Amino acid sequence: MTTKEQLSAFIKQEAALLGFAACGIAPAARLDEDEIRLNDWLQKGFHAGMDYMQKHAALRVNPELLVENAKSVIVFLYNYYPSKMMDENSPYLISAYAYGQDYHEVIREKLNILTARLKQQIHEISIRGFVDSAPVLERAWATRAGLGWIGKNSMLISKRNGSYFFISELITDIELEYDHPMGGDYCGDCSRCMDACPTSAITDLRTVDANKCISYLTIENKGEIPGEFKGKYEKWIFGCDICQQVCPWNRYSSSHHEPAFEPPPDLLQFSKEDWAQMDNEQYIRIFKKSAVKRAKFAGLNRNIEFLSGVEF
User: Fold this and answer.
1) How many other CB atoms are there within 10 angstroms of residue 183's CB atom?
2) 2, 58, 176, 204: which could join 8 in a potential S-S bond, CB 3.0 to 4.6 Å?
């Protein structure tokens, strides 16, 4: 019979073979403390226009509502730190996580492979994968699985990997060998992320007010960008990496080895004129497999217009 220790070791071994940077396992339990923080964040209106955060709040704190009789949450980190960032002289910038193919699809495929391999080991298993597209408090689970701590910028930070990684999960009804949370606060007195945020979106409670966050304003936001942010950020047209770029822990980040995350050559060479002349057909060609498609052509043009003052 396969023991929970053997199964846990098997999962971590397979995760490494599939290219995951880290894997940790936590016991599935209700996230009572995180529920308090989530409700406080929602009551303050920090979720801005992301109404889905409120609609599915109950699912986010109770894994048994996602997988019946859930026993374990397996958490994975997948590195996306690029070997080459967009040049600081580029006319516009997009977040590094969106340089290549949409991570949802890339990582989901890997979770499906791992799930199939796990089912070969244990046939009577209920298991479900999540890649930032379902109501899961991924950073809370990652901390419980011993993969890092929540930094002042609200990102999960790893001593070994920094913060440039995607988080995904498998929730299952089998018991496994569990890892222990790191505990402690490794940000110390550092406030570089808070000081560098040009819109003051990061509060002193390790919380981000989405109403002020450049990532929200350029991606999730479906309306116009409020005029109060005019001139507060210069180049970001999809997402923002400022709070990660200034974080001292990211000096330990190393380049990813995922071909799917490599940017199209066109993107790194785009001039201001190229952006201005881009039509919908070109947009689809360049970004059809990228997370940038979430903003849609009209949204990307809105972001460019807001920064440049030129109507497209």
Assistant:
1) 9
2) 176
List the structure tokens of 85: 């960032």
CA proximity to 168, closest of 192, 190, 195, 136 = 136
Any idea what the Cα angle at residue 263 is, between residues 258 and 265, rounded to 5°?
135
For the chain, 312 residues long, the average pLDDT of each consecutive 10-residue run is 89 98 97 94 94 86 95 98 86 94 96 96 93 91 97 94 96 97 91 96 90 97 94 92 97 95 85 89 90 93 85 46
Nearest partner of 79 among 24, 11, 16, 149, judged by Cα: 16
Reduced to 3 states (helix: H, G, I; strand: E, B; else coil), residue 195 is helix
Contacts 24+ apart (CB under 8 A), 263-267: 263/82, 263/99, 263/100, 267/86, 267/94, 267/99
Rounded CA-CA distance 118/174 in Å is 11
Whether the model pTM is above 0.70: yes
Q: Could you list the active site residues? A: 132
